[in-house]
Amino acid sequence: MALYPLPTAIILNRTTPFACRFFPKPLSSSLFSASAAAVSAAITATLPQHLSYGPSLYKGHKTSHQNSDEENFTRVFDITALRVPAEQCFSLESRLRGHLLNWPRIRNIARVAGDDIDDELKEFIGNDISTDDETLTVLERRIYGKGEGDGEKMCSVLYRDKLAKTFNSIGYVKFENLAKISRPKKKKWKREEKEGNGSERRGYGRSDMSMVEVVEEEGSGDEDFSGLLGDDFRRRKWSGSTRLLLLDERYANKGIEEMPEAIKAVLKEHNEESTRLSFEIVRCKLTLLYNYWQMNEVLEVLLPQGMIVPSAFETVGHIAHLNLRDEHFPYKKLIAKVVLDKNKPKIQTVVNKTDVIHNDYRTMQLEVLAGNHSLVTTVVENGLYFDVDLAAVYWNSRLATERQRLLSCFTNNDVVCDVFAGVGPIAISAAKKVKYVYANDLNPNAVEYLERNCVRNKLERKIEIFNMDGRRFIDSIFASEKARPITQVVMNLPNDAAEFLDSFRGIFRNRHADKQFTLPRIHVYGFSKARDPEFDFHEKIRIALSEVAFEVQMHKVRLVAPGKWMLCASFVLPETVAFAK
Length: 581
Hints:
This protein is an alpha+beta fold.
């Protein structure tokens, strides 16, 4: 992973143990090259007092090998575990739940390397190894070259030669390691491997976020055959499949005498009953990898102290849309890379809006910060598919709930007129429910995507599309004799929609008084920064229609900025306005 420069130098205040000050300096060529030691020192020296429990990048200790930027976020924690037989681990988990590790995204049950039985060996050991000592002895001869009462072991060379002459790759567990002895060792931490039969094998006790290792006790007199039989087999004699119940961090590095009475009772009870399936306390290392830490935890370490960590962003298909503050601009590449890492594979592109929307087409000026540079994506909403090009059209995923609320106001007999349709999130969704839809937008690119989305969702027969100015569209659609009677009008252009309301004055003035007509219900959106935003927007509507006596239903959609509300006003067009001259 190639991260981006961290434009800070970190200076620790020696008089205050946990103070960390950041001063800007020119960008370095690598994120951790010039300041790796400083970042490491800051992480260990700035441990907040409130992080007394649970995992943190400020706690634990680093691994000795940290050759990549991701490994700088690897932390190792010393914990204690209770080793129990696999078939009893779940019942004991419920019994000891209050004393087990309770860290987020970490299971408190872990596998033990070398203890699980391959399917090929189950026929040799039967169902219960604790009652069949003869079968276990045969199995130990196959694995270790020696069973109980066999005398001295053969040396590694002679034993390997005997195995090569006696067994083949099917009849001997881990036999493939014989051909790998002279090869360079691969990385100890392996990802998931696909076996030939299509099943999956995971590294024991390890995932892409964490790994649990048992700390082997030194001083065992048995010969180590791990290089011969594989790293899973160590000095300890095999006594059946076991699991590790990870104990709470407060019991780390403590002996049996310091354990709570519940754990002591389990050890005493089961060790008296069983001769071979022993329960024991073991020391373990819990390694948390880069993928374990969440986005805000990584950014909290990388960004200067006291800076607000950007944690929220809008998702449009595979694109993450950030709205960074001015203070974040020197770190925008770094922030984008972390956002991309922590949201893969769903997020493939990270962009930031560089300027406010101030054009008639409502398009945004976007800067690609990380990932691929494609701004064409597909959004799924209400079971419908919408193709969107953020560089050429407008889309706001945060209005999905509002669009759903608006659709709930429509009935099967409605005819909807969407004056500012965009790529069709309201028009196409309404077409599934209502009788017919007239959709319009000034942006030719939006109209192109609107037509494409209608065909993709197989609704092109229920939607008629226009590409013209909003005022001209309102005049022409209500003046048309061929158009169906419109019952619902949507005007979702918050910046300017209220200014188009004067187009409804006199839309029925040329109709005969005795001819049947339907007054449409209008849903108009707008912004307000007033202290009473609902009253302020209501006044704008009354001024635009030159009418006072009519009822308006107000709905607060969302707070788009401090003190700035987006609102939706719904009202039936007054008859005096529709027939005005």
